[in-house]
Amino acid sequence: MTLLMAIESSCDETAVCLMDDAGRVHAHALYSQVSTHAPYGGVVPELAARSHTEHLDILVTQALNEAGVTLRDIDIFAATTMPGLMGGLIVGATFAKTLAMLHQKRFLAVHHLQAHALSVRWEHPVDFPYLLLLVSGGHCQLIRVQGLDSSILLGETLDDAAGEAFDKAARLLSLGFPGGPAIEQAAAQGDPEKYPFEIPLKNQKTGFAFSFSGLKTALAQRLAQWPQPLSPQDRHDLAASFQMAVAQHLIRVCARAFAMPDSPKTLVVAGGVAANATLRAGLQDMAQRHNGTFIAPRPDICTDNAIMIAWAAWERLRQNPLASDPLTSPLKPRDAFVESPTS
Ligand code: KG4
Ligand code: ZN
Hints:
Mean pLDDT: 96
Number of helices: 11
Order of helices and strands: EEEHHEHEHEEEHHHHEHEHH
Oligomer: single chain
Largest sheet: 5 strands, mixed
CATH superfamily of the largest domain: ATPase, nucleotide binding domain
Radius of gyration: 20 Å
Helix content: 40-55%
Number of strands: 10
Bound molecules: 5'-O-[(R)-(carboxyoxy)(hydroxy)phosphoryl]adenosine, zinc ion
């Protein structure tokens, strides 16, 4: 058995996973910094980096204890090296590189978005190619995943990311941070048809673009003109209506891609927003109507975690058992793993 340790620290989750070559998780230790950032209504990069520093060695020890192994039993060290907040990437990747150097083991650099894109394959036997809706705090992209090293960008957001839209709407509705889960919770008690929002880019005929800034502005304008203080029920109804508009927009764009004659017949969703139950149910319905298949990772695999980082490393090792990256591998705050069809 070969054992790999993977570290995720690109945003506001610090996580460590121990996974073997059969994809079996021996330990997964995760610390979410939500309470650190909540008072600011968004992730504060400096605080995130400090928190990774404070928690990473504790989580590594916790993971080793949970698996009943020591650092000497780890054969390969992997970490997210791009994209993400630079401070966090430095903490996690330097930790993994240092352990690899000390124990004279291999280091593997993992692309965070590619890890989201492949995460579904950890538990489900999904073949390439598949359509991927990648919806996170920083991204909203529709991608054709053709293989480990080949993904084509079909369309992306013209403005905000899907998670960013939820986070901004939650702030406007004073629902707290992170916005996605807060909106989903409030929406569960609301009527999605009470205050309908116009679905963005409704008349888009070609391309697969997304847009969310108009929805956010529409919500802000409604709130500015609200005749009396918002009641809890108003807040729930607005959250439900907003969530419905975001989900409908995402679903409509995916439906158009699905209807293309050369489209793969499997649709996969990934990224934090993919944890949203209304979105998942809507995508499932739509895929069925198109005689296709919809497959989603477990909600806890959709939000940031180290299982997907370990899995992405193993996908690469399965293709090339000798894969290894230099300790000088660069850390990059931005990087696309997709090719655009025109490039
Ligand atoms: O993938 P992720 O954990 O971190 C990034 O790489 O960005 O995504 C975080 C984003 C946040 O914007 C959060 O509000 C959103 O995902 N999110 C959700 C849900 N859970 C997290 N959005 C909608 N519904 C959810 N249940
Ligand atoms: Zn992510």
